[in-house]
Amino acid sequence: MTSFRNDRTGETINVDATREALLARFGETAKQDNWLWFWLARHFERHAPAAPETRDMIAFLADSFVLAAGMGLECPRIRVFFEGKRYKIYLSRKGTLCFKSGFVEAGTMKPVGDEEYVGCLWGGKFIASRDRTMLPTEGAFMAQLAADPVSFLAKCSRDMDRCCYCWSSLEDKRSKDVGYGPVCAVRWGLPWGVSYNEKVPSFAELWANSHVNDKRNIRMLCEDIRREPRDELTWMALGDALADAGYRNRPSMPKKAIMLPAV
Q1: What residues have CB less than 8 Å from 77, skipping those under 6 apart?
Q2: Which of 64, 169, 191, 206 is the most buried if burial means most Cβ atoms within 10 Å?
Q3: CB 150: neighbour CB atoms within 10 A?
Q4: Nearest-5° angle of CA 51, CA 54, CA 58?
């Protein structure tokens, strides 16, 4: 990530591009201290497409929140610790998946200070906060999350010895091995041991293997639900698709209206 600052307003933009890449994209020439850098970066931030792995991470996380909401969670959220910082991923009232971060006391999980808004997932990409510069460890967190959300979050949970989905302590051996308990495994469609997974594929597996021409395409059904969250028939179709895959618990349309991520 490269930071560009508007010297007049103090606004800062963080973009995943070097100065050379910006110049090549716009065919511009600029000096090291040219005022144009900030505006080139702003245009790049607003119009550059996200990398495929980032788009997939955003869509998968959004659909995981759809599943969790359908399984009865009124305020689904994820909380983890990573490299001396704490992170919270939550659903905003505007329907965006937002990230906040804060520090923890060295060698502990005790929070220090307030959490700060890092950015949100919207429009197929991560939009960083314009009020602060993203820290290197926050960039590393986002990169690992994008590479493999389920495995990375499970590893963070094991490191914390606490479930990142419900914040409960990991007590039995299986929960300690996978990073979450049986209740969260059902609510979020997570892997739960070899013998279980042979019968019931994880939501991530079903999502990744969805086919465009499949009438019960998990990914497409979740996308339809995110567009029309009060369409009970689509919720029923998603429940049927998961039941066919071996799920005993079926998601259903939340009783209370909820803003779902539009990605």
Answers
A1: 88, 89, 90, 91
A2: 64
A3: 18
A4: 140
Alpha helices per DSSP H over 119-231:
136-147, 149-160, 173-178, 182-187, 194-199, 203-208, 218-227
Query: What CA–CA distances, in Å, run from 257 to 63, 70, 109, 183, 260?
Result: 17, 11, 34, 23, 9
Q: Within 10 Å of residue 249's Cβ, how many Cβ atoms?
A: 14
pTM score, whole prediction: 0.77
Q: Is the dihedral of CA 108, 114, 115, 116 positive or negative?
A: negative
DSSP 162: B
Per-residue tens of pLDDT for the chain, all 263 residues: 677 677 667 677 677 667 677 666 655 555 455 556 666 665 555 555 555 566 787 889 999 999 999 999 988 999 999 998 999 999 888 778 899 999 988 877 788 889 999 998 877 778 888 888 888 899 899 889 988 899 999 999 999 999 999 999 998 898 999 999 999 999 999 988 766 666 788 999 899 888 655 556 899 999 899 888 889 999 999 999 999 988 989 999 998 777 666 66
Q: Identify whether residues 71 and 178 lie together within a single domain.
A: yes
In a domain, 37, yes or no: yes
| Structural domain for 136, as ranges | 52-244
Asked whether the beta carbons of 197 and 191 are under 8 A apart, the reply is yes
